[in-house]
Design a protein that fits this description.
alpha/beta, 4-stranded mixed beta sheet, globular
């Protein structure tokens, strides 16, 4: 199976092309955030490097959030367009789960964290089973202290990844179990891992109606709903 994997849900722009479990080509760029400008040219370049045409692809796997609103939209829109145009599978993977998958230690508890500002985070807790992250605490937009208190109840060492360094002080005072030190590269999503996770996952059933997993409203939406509490709050994306 020939797979295209895409992740622009946070600062890095990452794209990979795989054939089954073999990575044919991959790139990660962290020096800019012009994802809308660079994503399609990078996809085209990687396919050329792998000596593939778009019509050779059989599945596109996308990190569908949480993370940057703009970054998620760019990746998901691109993935949906390719899936619909080429009539191939679309698979969505949690952006937090892809980070947790960086830890190759069976049984480890992994807490990927993205800074959502104002002492809030996008975070989840995963246990590595059979080399794959399985959910212990579902992805959520939550206060960092509340999340850490929930993690502390496990009483086990935890691998904190992503933006965890932003919260090192509160992690140290909230989670008493020793936490393994991590190499900096573990804090970056590995796009080949996204493709490998998505290779065996079920594709979305309706590409057109698929929406990203933002986990919170944009500020504009939140303010509008606060001023219009009686109005319809159904997702505009999902309306027919």
């Amino acid at each position: 199976m020939k797979i295209l994997a895409i992740d622009t849900s946070n600062r890095p722009l990452s794209v990979a092309v795989l054939e089954d479990t073999t990575v044919l080509a991959a790139i990660t760029v962290t020096v800019h955030q012009k994802h809308a400008e660079y994503l399609l040219p990078e996809i085209e370049r990687l396919l050329a490097m792998a000596e593939l045409k778009p019509t050779d692809l059989e599945r596109v796997v996308v990190a569908a959030g949480p993370g940057s609103y703009t970054g998620i939209r760019i990746a998901v829109t691109t993935a949906k367009t390719l899936a619909a145009t080429l009539n191939i599978d679309l698979v969505a993977v949690s952006s937090l789960a892809t980070l947790a998958a960086n830890v190759p230690v069976e049984g480890a508890l992994v807490a990927p964290i993205f800074d959502a500002r104002n002492q809030n985070v996008f975070a989840g807790l995963y246990r590595i089973k059979g080399g794959r992250p399985t959910v212990e605490i579902a992805d959520a937009h939550t206060g960092v202290v509340d999340f850490l208190k929930a993690v502390a109840k496990y009483g086990e060492p935890v691998w904190f990844l992503g933006d965890a360094g932003h919260f090192s002080d509160v992690i140290g005072t909230t989670v008493s179990a020793a936490t393994p030190a991590v190499s900096p590269w573990l804090n970056l999503p590995q796009v080949a891992t996204i493709g490998l996770l998505g290779r065996t996952m079920e594709p979305v059933s309706d590409v057109d109606r698929f929406v990203p997993n933002y986990l919170r409203l944009t500020q504009a939406e939140a303010e509008w709903r606060a001023k219009n509490p009686e109005e319809d709050t159904e997702s505009y994306v999902e309306k027919i």
